[in-house]
Amino acid sequence: MMNDFAAASRATMQFLRQRLGFKLWMVTRTDGKDWIVLFADDNGYGVKAGQVYSWAEMLCSRMVEGAGPNIAPDVAREPAYASAQIHDKVTVGAYVGVPLRRADGTLFGTLCGIDPEPQPERIRDEQDMVVLMGELLGGLLEAELSGTEAVRKAERNDVDSTRDELTGLYNRRGWDMLAAREEERCRRYGHPACVVSIDLDDLKFYNDTQGYASGDALLIRCSKALKDVTRGSDVVARMGGDEFAMLMVECDYFDAQAMLLRVQETLAGYDVRASIGMAMRKPGIDLEESLAMADAEMYRAKRSRKVLN
């Protein structure tokens, strides 16, 4: 095994393919209703890293529930597996799967393999070995994820020179650098993330009627509000002029909705009026695309506010 989760996953899948055969081996991540392929060793199914499937349809979901065994040489003989919806999409004759868990016992994903043909009964004898491989991968994963906060702190220190002088937030260059590093983690571990785009409604009015010092004060109030609602691992940036952005790391849709409400309430508490857009980063939509989507939603909100006013 290697000391890197990605490299170790690939080495594990290659070893299992050589040991047990099977046309497809995968290391996956579960995220709500989604089952995300992080790494794949595919020889016939056409599965690639980044593809997303329904968790409820997968044999792995039933394995994790304890409804089916870790190794099924002939899935047709396992009622829990034989009735799975995945059979409507692909041919599965044999299955191997073990959970990948965090140190606290929560499910991260699975290490699994499938083949279109039933396999000899003797592959059941390999269960202890496959379970051990899953535990080793889980331990390596936990070590990497546990060190993520230290890595993020070091990254923030590296880009401290990219701060906006007025607000103390990161500027666009700092945002681009940190977002690129978070995107790498999202791809590697299947982390969800949320991007928020914020545009102040009244900056020009303050500058024109009360002077630039008043406009600067508005920008500072906005930055303080955004700092109040974000965690140390998140990224908050002044993208330029009256535009701000937030990157909420390892944030699923439900957490994102709650966070968006806090942003709105906190901005109001600082007497800041703003138009806001939000988008989720998920497989197939990277952080750069998520920012563009959040921007588009923010501009729609701004146009609606102007119509109402």
UniProtKB/TrEMBL annotation:
Biological process annotations from GO: cell adhesion involved in single-species biofilm formation; negative regulation of bacterial-type flagellum-dependent cell motility
Enzyme nomenclature, EC number: 2.7.7.65
Entry's Gene Ontology cellular component terms: plasma membrane
CDD domains: GGDEF
Gene Ontology molecular-function annotations: diguanylate cyclase activity
Catalytic activity: 2 GTP = 3',3'-c-di-GMP + 2 diphosphate
Residues of the GGDEF domain: 191-309
Record-linked SMART domains: GAF, GGDEF
Broad enzyme group: transferase
Record-given protein name: diguanylate cyclase
